[in-house]
């Protein structure tokens, strides 16, 4: 007999270690993610029932995998039994072949599946959170601020599409990576961005970091993958999940930052830089690192941040990068120079950071009335309640 | 898996783009079909006459309605179909991207559901 608590712990540990790997390996033969997830849930239930009597198996993952596979075979058989001849043949055919190593590259393949160009960009991050990490649809819906049934339905539809369109659970050929890897990075970054937003619970932040680490473990020689892991850790180091007031980056007390996360982020960044192939995420991480350096040197190298943000705008001219660049310029060359850069940013009328930056730059330039109008506009666009409160009571500064 | 590549593109004729361009297009389609065939993935290929040759039929209340012209009068028209049998979507997308008309139109890639062979419907 094994203690029920011990069993629950072993099941939890297997889920944490291998949820995505198991889903990926179970889904590969049929390309049916929903079926794989259901089968794995079934296997976990059986483990909770059987392990207390039989003991925790030597390879919990192997056990779960076998039970999951049998479950899939059973489900497909009974489905085939119920339906016509047509489906009978279709579903009976792909009996999962036994694999000596249960998880070769399967997890990486699953990440590529979730961010496949044939999958709508908006659902890629939720898909990853659910299929790779096992985050429940309810939690994902809350983070994305959409009703739970709507999110669940979108996930079901995306999974059905993966199966029906025939997206293979295989790692694409290396020659394809220049086009196929960026959406994977984007989706992992999306998990982090959503985890930081006001509506997400603190657990999701951990999950997003987990995704970033996982990808870096799988692709340790891709500088942008390492850059992304660095970015996530450096930014997370400064997140205070329990914060009750908004504190602008420059006014944060470095003593409150998480040193372990900072160190990990620096390590990833260092490894990425060794490849000598800079890219968007490495530059963003380097900017975070320059801010983080305040924890050690007490100072921020503004010139370095200006240079890095200019480089970032060249490789990834997103609105966020362009606004940040304007602020970086202002910090070195003064508010007028920053405003000139900001004026060139097109399409930022509904972009909150652009208005917050404009307010700060105008205030620094002594244009009080205009600054206040910009601040009002920023306030209208601010979603995060803590930042709203901050902005409502104080003019942003640079 | 079987996929049908639906080739949509703006219609052109000798008057609009010239004889040379038409011939170049035909040659490109010839080598495309040969490449598909040589790879052993081609199941069928049809290049259609222009939609001006099309007639559209429907029945309402048991009455046959016949209309001249295509089903939808749009700038891009269905110009041809290729049925291919490949392992997965990526392979299908690859072949779709190599279709000559991908440069002047768009190729829709649709997986087959079932097909009728030897007197019965079968899974594609």
* Strand order within the widest beta sheet of chain B: 2-5-1-6
Round the mean pLDDT of chain A to the nearest integer and report it: 89
CA-CA gap between termini of chain B: 7 Å
* Helix/strand order of chain B: EHHEEEEHEEE
Q: What is the strand tally of chain A?
A: 0
- The average pLDDT of chain B is 94
Low-confidence stretches of chain B: none
Assign an overall shape of chain A: elongated
SSE order of chain A, as H and E? HHHHHHHHHHHHHHHHHHHH
Q: Enumerate how many helices of chain A there are, as a single number.
A: 20
The coarse overall form of chain B would be: flat
CATH class of chain B: Alpha Beta
Helix content of chain A: over 70%
Based on secondary structure, the structural category of chain A is mainly alpha
Biggest contact? A-B, 14 and 14 residues
Percent of residues in helices of chain B comes to: 25-40%
Structure description:
The complex is a heterodimer of chains A (398) and B (124). Chain A has 398 residues and is mainly alpha-helical. Chain A is built from 20 helices and no strands. Among the domains of chain A are: 4-92; 328-398, no CATH class. In chain A, helix 5 (106-114) packs antiparallel against helix 6 (121-133) and helix 9 (177-196) runs antiparallel to helix 10 (202-218). Chain B is α+β, with helices and mostly antiparallel strands. Helices cover 27% and strands 41% of the residues of chain B. The longest helix of chain B is centred in the first third of the chain and has 20 residues, at 19-38. At the A-B interface, helix 4 of A face helix 3 and strand 8 of B.
């Amino acid at each position: 007999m094994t203690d029920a608590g011990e069993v629950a712990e072993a099941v939890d540990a297997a889920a944490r270690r291998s949820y995505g790997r198991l889903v990926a390996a179970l889904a590969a033969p049929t390309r049916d993610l929903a079926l794989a997830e259901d089968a794995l849930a079934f296997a976990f239930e059986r483990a909770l029932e059987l392990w207390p009597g039989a003991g925790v198996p030597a390879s919990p993952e192997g056990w779960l995998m076998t039970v999951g596979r049998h479950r899939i075979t059973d489900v497909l058989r009974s489905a085939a039994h119920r339906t016509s001849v047509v489906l009978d043949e279709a579903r009976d055919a792909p009996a999962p072949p036994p694999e000596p190593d249960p998880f070769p590259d399967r997890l990486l393949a699953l990440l590529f599946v979730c961010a496949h160009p044939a999958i709508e960009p908006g659902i890629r991050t939720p898909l990853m959170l659910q299929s790779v990490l096992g985050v429940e649809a309810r939690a994902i819906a809350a983070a994305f601020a959409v009703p739970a049934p709507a999110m669940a339905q979108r996930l079901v539809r995306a999974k059905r599409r993966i199966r029906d369109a025939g997206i293979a659970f295989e790692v694409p050929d290396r020659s394809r990576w220049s086009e196929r890897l960026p959406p994977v990075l984007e989706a992992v970054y999306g998990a982090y961005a959503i985890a930081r937003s006001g509506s997400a619970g603190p657990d999701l932040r951990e999950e997003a970091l987990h995704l970033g680490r996982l990808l870096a473990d799988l692709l340790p020689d891709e500088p942008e993958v390492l850059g992304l892991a660095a970015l996530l850790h450096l930014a997370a180091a400064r997140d205070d999940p329990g914060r009750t007031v908004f504190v602008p980056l420059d006014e944060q007390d470095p003593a409150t930052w998480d040193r372990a996360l900072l160190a990990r982020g620096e390590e990833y960044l260092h490894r990425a830089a060794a490849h000598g192939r800079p890219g968007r995420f490495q530059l963003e991480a380097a900017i975070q690192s320059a801010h983080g350096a305040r924890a050690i040197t007490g100072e921020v190298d503004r010139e370095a941040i200006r240079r890095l943000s200019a480089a970032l705008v060249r490789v990834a001219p997103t609105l966020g990068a362009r606004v940040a660049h304007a602020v970086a310029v202002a910090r070195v060359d003064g508010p007028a120079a920053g405003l000139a850069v900001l004026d060139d940013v097109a399409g930022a009328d509904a972009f909150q950071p652009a208005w917050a930056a404009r307010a700060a730059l105008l205030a620094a330039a002594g244009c009080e009335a205009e600054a206040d109008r910009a601040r009002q506009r920023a306030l209208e666009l601010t979603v995060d309640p803590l930042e709203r409160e901050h902005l409502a009571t104080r003019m942003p500064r640079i | 898996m079987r996929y049908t590549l639906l080739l949509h593109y703006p219609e052109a004729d000798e008057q609009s783009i010239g004889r040379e361009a038409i011939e170049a297009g035909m040659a490109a389609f010839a080598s495309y079909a040969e490449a598909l065939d040589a790879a052993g993935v081609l199941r069928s290929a049809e290049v259609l006459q222009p939609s001006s040759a099309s007639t559209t039929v429907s029945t309402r209340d048991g009455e046959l309605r016949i209309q001249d012209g295509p089903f939808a009068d749009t700038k891009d028209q269905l110009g041809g179909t290729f049925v291919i049998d490949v392992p997965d979507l990526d392979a299908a997308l690859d072949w779709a991207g190599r279709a000559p008309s991908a440069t002047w139109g768009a190729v829709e890639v649709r997986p087959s559901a079932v097909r009728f062979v030897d007197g019965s419907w079968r899974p594609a």
